[in-house]
Amino acid sequence: MSSLTTIEVNKEDMKFSAAHFTIFSGTERERLHGHNFRVSMSISSPANRNGLAFSYKILKDKIRALCDELDEYTLLPAKSPYLAIVEQGSQYQASFNGETLVFLKSDCKLLPIPNTTVEAFADYLLQRFLHDDDFVSRHDIAQVEMKVSSGPGQWGSCIWREGI
């Protein structure tokens, strides 16, 4: 069995700025606020006989593109059990615990996640990255870890392993 190498990329420009609120329960949520979220990723795969797993540039470009999709939006959790979101013309109306929050659709991204937390963002970005099955199979990827930070010292992560 050959050993695996791990490539980690964590660049200053791998980030997105977004507004969100975390839902803690059916009756408690944060107020709307924003962060400059940072994204980091590590990938494990065998190195080729030239000592290279794959080009870092490919990985950095993929992460930057994923960040660009979320940058400068209000992110809403479309799969929250506590938040009901309906479209009303050019707006989203989000109902939570008797309150109605109104957002311009053009300012929002509805994400297929249950909450707008760093761990949910990490899982979402990981699934979007893995959607490119060709990259994973072409480079014999064994493990991918996606991390999202909402501030210094605060990271959420999600891991995918081949065969699990």
Automatic annotation (TrEMBL):
Q: Which InterPro entries match?
A: 6-PTP_synth/QueD (IPR007115), 6-PTP_synth/QueD_sf (IPR038418)
Cofactor(s) it depends on: Zn(2+)
* Annotated Gene3D superfamilies: 6-pyruvoyl tetrahydropterin synthase/QueD (3.30.479.10)
* GO terms of molecular function: 6-carboxytetrahydropterin synthase activity; metal ion binding
The EC number on file is 4.1.2.50
Query: Which reaction(s) are listed as its catalytic activity?
Result: 7,8-dihydroneopterin 3'-triphosphate + H2O = 6-carboxy-5,6,7,8-tetrahydropterin + triphosphate + acetaldehyde + 2 H(+)
Highest taxon of source: Bacteria
| Keyword annotations of the record | Lyase, Metal-binding, Zinc
Indicate the family of this protein. Belongs to the PTPS family. QueD subfamily.
What this protein is called in its record is 6-carboxy-5,6,7,8-tetrahydropterin synthase
What's the source species for this entry?
Simiduia aestuariiviva
